[in-house]
Structures are given as C-alpha cells and as structure tokens.
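question for whoever is on the cluster today: can someone run the full assembly for these? two chains, 903 residues total. i dont have access anymore since they changed the login thing
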Amino acid sequence: MKTQSSDHYTMSPFELSITHISFTIGAGILTLPRALVSSLESSFGWVSILFCGLIMAIFVSLIVKLQRRLTKETIFDYFSRSHHLKWLGKLFSVLFFLYFLAFFAIEGRILANVVHIYLLDQTPSEVIFLIMLLATTYACSKGVEGIVHISLIYFPFVLLVLGIVVLMNVGNLNINELRPFVATEVIRAFDARNLIYFFLGFEIFFFWLKYVNPIEPTGKKQKKHKPLVTYLLGVVGIVILYALVVVFSFGVLTVEATKILPFPTIELSKEVEVLEGLIERLEPLVIVMWIMTIFNTMAILQFIASNTFHAQWFKKGNANIVAFTFGLLSFFIAFSPDSIPESLQMSDWIGYGGFSVTILLLIVGFIVVKKSNKTKSGAAIEQQPGREMDG
Amino acid sequence: MFKKLFKKLNEDNVRSSDEYDIVVSDNLDETKKTLDSIIGESDDVVVKEFKIAKKRRAIVYTIDGLTNMYSLEQGVIRPLMNFNDDLPKEKDDKRFIEKVMQETILFTEAETADNIDDAILGFMSGQALLAVDGVSTFFIIDAREFEQRGLNEPPSEVLVRGPRDGFNEVLHTNVMLVRRRVRDPNFVCQFGQIGRRSKRDFALMYIKGIVDPKLVDEMRYRLSCVDTDDTEESGNIEQLVEDNVLSPFPQVLRTERPDKTVSSLMNGGVAVSLDGTPFALLAPVTLQFLFKSPEDNYDRWQIGTLVRLLRYVAAFIAMFLPAIYIAMVSYHPGMIPTLLAVSIAGTREGVPFPSFIEAFAMEFTLELLREAGVRLPQPIGQTIGIVGGLVIGDAAVRAGIVSPIMIIVVALTAISSFSLPSYNVSITFRMLRFALMISAAGFGLYGIVIGFIFMTIHLSSLKSFGNYYMSPFAPIRIRDWADLFFRSPLSGQKKRPQVPNTFDDTKSNWTK
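^ ran it for u. tokens below:
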C-alpha cells in the first residue's frame, strides 16, 4: 500500500459518496428481494427499505459529526496517537478485520456461486474465487486513491446495469402483484434485522472521511456546499436503487417466485426481451457488470481491513503481506459453509456483528474523543489554515 | 597471444580529456596544434588559413556540409582580409576583438569563447571556429546551413481538415513552426543539451501564465536526470522520463503536428522537441487524450462528437472483439441469438481448431502482415496487402482452416485499431487484445471481466507528470466532461480543462 502517496491524497465529498454507494451495493442486491419477502411475505417491503435508509442516514450523520472533532485523522489514528488508548485501536482493528473478513468471504462466495451457475458451469467455484482474490489483492496494492478511483470508474456500470434491468422490464411490470401496497403487518415491516447486512457500508466513513477535502487541490475554493448533504444524497441513492430492484422483482417475478428464486435480481434480467435478435440472453451481461461491483466491494473491504490492521499492529511491516494473508484466510472461511443457503444465513450474523461493531466504535468514539478534547483541548490536533475539514 | 591481440584492438580507444594537449595561447601555431589534436583526425574538418589585412595570420575551422561557405566567405573572411584600417597593436586583444565583432562581422551571428570547451561544442554543432594569431580568444561564427527535409504533411498523423505542415528533423525549424502560431510573449522556449556524447539540442516549450510551474520544474528535473550517451530519438527521452516503465499505456504523447503541439501548450502542457527527429513530446497525457485528434475541434461540433464516439467504440472493438468471440463461441453459445448461433456453428463445422487457436492464428497473421507492410517499400507493400487479404483470408476459409466469421472479426479489429488518432496508441490496445484473448480462452466472459478489472486497477493509480491517468473519470472533473465523449460547441468551452492543472483557466470570454 502506497502510504507515502496516499498521505497527500484528497477527494471531494461527491467522490466519497459515490464510493459509499458502490461499497454498499455489492452482492447484496442480488438477494435483497428474497430477504425482504422471507421476513414479510408480502410486497410491503418498500417500507422496510425506507426505514433502513433512515437508520443509515442517522448513522452517517453521526459519523460525520464525530469526524468533525477529529478533523484530519481517523478515529484509529487518534487511538494510536494517545498512549492509554492504544489497546482500543488494536481491539477495534481486530474486530473490523474479522468482520470485514467474513463479509469479504460471503461476497466472494456469492460471486463464485453466481459465476458458477450462470457463466462457467465447468469451472469449480474455488478457482473463480481465487482469481477474484488475485484481483482484489492487486487492487489493495494501489492505495486509497487507487481503490476510490476504481469505484468511480465502475459506478456508471452499476447505473447502466440497473437501468437496463429496470427500464427494459417496464413492460413486464404487473402493478397488481404489488398490492397490497400497505399491508396489515405495519409493525413487522420495521423489523429490519435481516436487512442490516444489505445496508452496511457506512463504516467507510470512519476510515476515509479524513481524505475528504472540500477545497480543490488547486487551492481554488469550491462552491459552498455541505458535504453532509452529499453523503445523505448518496444514502437516498442507495435507497432508490434498492427500492427499484425490489419493486420490479415483485412486480415482474411475483412475490411467490421471488421467495424461491436463488438470485431474484438476475432472474429479473432474464425477463428482458427487448434486445432480442442482438443478444439472446441478457443475464450473462448483467452478471459481468455485477462482477465489477462485487469486486469493488471486496477490494474496499480487503483494503480497509488490512490497512487498518497493519497500521495498528505492525506499522513497520509490509501492508501487502497483511492483505495477502487476509485473502488466504477469506478463502478458508468462504468455503467452510457447505452450500449457498448456509452462507446466506451467515450473512445475517455478519449483519448483526458488523452493526454491533460499528455502534460500539461510534459510542466509544463519542465518549473518548469528547473526553480527551476536554483534557487536552485538542492540542495535538493540527488544523491547516485554509483547509477546513467540514466533515 | 590473444592477450596481445586484445591489447592491440583496444589500443585505439577513446582518449580521456586529460590526454588532450590543451593549450590556449595567443600563438596561433600552438592553438592549431591543440585543435588538430582534438578534431584534426576527422577528414570532414575543413581548415583554411588566411591573413587578416595581409599581416596577421588567422585560421578558420569548419565542418564540411554544415556551413554555408559562401556566406562565411562573404560575411567574415573577405571583410577580415580587407581590414585595411589601422590594425590594432599585437597585444591589444580587447580592441581587436571589439573591432572584429562590431565593425567587420556584421550580418553573420558571431560570439567569442574564452575556453576551448565552449569553442569545441559550438564547432561540433556546425559553427565555424576562427582563431587569430595574437589573440587567445576564439570566434564562433554561426554560418550554419545544412540540408533539411521540407515541411511535409506528417505521414503518421494525416488530417482531412487542418494545416498541412509538419515538424522536420531540425530543431530550429520546429520551434519556428510553433512560434509562428503563438505570438504571445509568454511563450517560452528554452534550449538545452541532452546526451553525454551527442549533446543534442532540445527545446522545452511552454506558455508562461498558463502552465503550472510545478509541471515545468518536474519536466526540467526529469530531463536533467537523463544521463546517457545519446538519445537517438525523442522516444528515448519519452521512455526515460515517463512515470511507470511497466505500463503499456503511453504516458507522454508524441506528435509531428505543430498545431497539436500548440493546442497542448494552450491547455497547460509542456512540449519537448529534440533535434534530429520530427516527433515532439507532449506532457502530461491522460487516457482521454489518446482519443482526441486536432480535427475534432476544426470540424463542427456535431462531427467532432460523432467521430470521437466512433473512436471510443473502435477502441472497445480493437481490444475486446476477438476475446468476446472466443468467449461466446466456446463458453456461452447461449448468449448468441439462435439464428446467428446456428449460422456460426454451420460455418465452424469443418474447422479443426478450437476458437482460441483460430483467433490467435488469425490475429498473429494480421500483425505479421501489418509489420511486413510497414517495412516494405511502397509498391511491394501493396502486394503484401493483396497477398494478405486475398490469399490468406480467402484461401484459409476455403481450405477450412478458419471460419468466415473469424475473418470478419479479425478484419473489424484491424480496421478499428487503425482508426485511432495516433499509431502508438493503437499498439497499446493491440497488445492488450492478446492478453484479453488468453484470459477469455481460459475463463470466458469472467476472464474478460477479470482482464478488464486488472486494467482498471492499473490505470486507477497511474499518473502522468502528477496527473491521474483516468481523469476526468476518476478523479471526477465534471468540467472536462464537456470535451470528452461529447465535444461541446467551442462557445461552450470557456474554461481550460482542469487536467492538467493550469495557472489561468479562462480560455475565452464569450458574452452573448
């Protein structure tokens, strides 16, 4: 990891917001409609998505608020800088390492399975996983700017795929399938426990907010805008994308079918028939583009986990070795569940785990940073003149 | 015995500088001896002795073919010989030099050199060296004139609409071509020498007030780090100053066109022109520049936009089409529409090879034909085209070695790869095509995606002189999107592009 070049790297809030969207929308969107149906058994899921989006927005604004106190460093930098808090940094880096490791393994497992089912039925999914591992490990060697740029390059593909899947299915949409629009089990819709996994991704703000610089590198001042609004718009974007996919998979595939299909979103692309004559089946193309998004999510996971772990435990060692070890471990975790349903079950637990770790870090952050601000009055925190950190 | 032979062979090796018997004196015979020991070995050195005002001896050294003898004689030697005023006293150096410089040599450029290093450097680049008895200073007279190619239209960058002149091999001509287009006093052109032995002149050009001073400093620093005997071509400099040696993508753009150079300078770039080659180097370069041609701006914006979109499609085809063909035929036949799949299967029926071998063989043949066509003289080159097109293409299909679809794929890739604005860009895409074909043969569409992912990872952190190669895609520079896929009307482009960074970003001040 090119720490020396990443030190001076800055990105705009818009770029971070797009990275957040690409990070959150990973393999999850392939199975999201089914997860919704299995907990609700009706098409009332859009309320749950809205609710989750709201929670996500709250968390994002809390993290941004925390970051305001830290200015130019992450909470992990803060931990490692003070003597009696070092253990906290080490603890949380391990927790995040494990959480991201499991997350990574699931994403990779789903990817390997999807490719195995729809693209390469002769190739074992282990090989598919290992090749992807090669790509993500290579991506980790490129540092923060590399990973962020990859997200920016792939983001149009995400929109393109969803655009194709949604727009081309407008004709197939059966509004009647969406009824009842507001079902009786309103309270159950707020039980979003097994949706957490799909909305996790705002942890990225813990790690990368310090790179955000609302002033352009040229020194020219950008138009005044609140970075937080940009981040929240990103959250809205995620909610809209999710809602579109859910509404269309219910409307096109029917609620009953969504419940049994392994990957409803891919099945949705199978329904597209507009391009007939040019391409017989669209879903390989859609999968191909999803591979890029899943790769993107996996690369971010691997990079953040190994980079944080490396910074907290062996600062002098080579970060690429940590990333490589991360990859090896993930391979064994990914293939320890026997089947895809088992892995998906695991994803619920990852959701709970990740959520708890994030909340814990947020709480600890608010307690610790506030306290030391009082005692140290932020003496060590340097603030560059002219370069205000607004979030 | 061998040792002896070896010693003998090595006897005639290069003299180190302290072996020269350097004497700078006011005695002409000693000076002559010194100069003869340094440059007298070459037969193209012309030595001419004459007498100033029939009294004082003088000697002039020139290199045959680099000096205009007529203007040297008319402008320098004859006035000196007719120097009939009172000749200064023997020891009065200063007055003599003054008189020669100000009253005798008028129309020819001349300067004086006190030490032999300066004198020899000027002499080796073609200037005449004049030594006068009784004066320990050399006169360097610039009466250079040598053969040069005309300013023909550059063969590697042909435009339909646009100026027809191109750079040639003479540095001063090239700088003149740029200077004639930019009459801004802020246009700076600095000369320097590169190469330990060859001491070739190069010119660093930029426009003060537009270019980021850091970029100029960086370029200057990198050029000064070049320490090699000779940079035969600007391509050598390009390879020595680029950021990432392992990258297949060009990080410095080369051009033979003065108009392209000027437009790069106007957008905050620097240009380096080297003596002895028509190719100037433009830096920095990002991915989008590979798809831009000066013509986009000369034609109306609709044409510019469509042609540019065409180039992006061409680049995609040049890189991905054979790989996609391989993936479709051998892994995902279900993706092809039924009728097409049937016809492909029908044409492939007699073909004994798997699609990868088929595609690889044909692409290889194509590259062979291209290379042969480039190397051969013009009339035979056409023959190669006929041999390639008719004999190999048609005969290979008839013999059942390849399928007709494969020929179409190969032809399409070839045409696409040559429709990119400059030749070295298409080489990049052609190289990557083979890598993608191999990964497609191994893992089908998944392999292509992985190949693409590896490419984007590489590009995402690649930089050219401090500018991210993928900008304005990543990092996002929204303003530059006005001149990316879509070439917006010129009246809409009031600002310079954000990449490279510029000092003054207003290009035009249009008020409605």
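summary bc i know u wont read the tokens: The first strand of chain B starts at residue 45 and ends at 52. Chain B has a mean pLDDT of 85.
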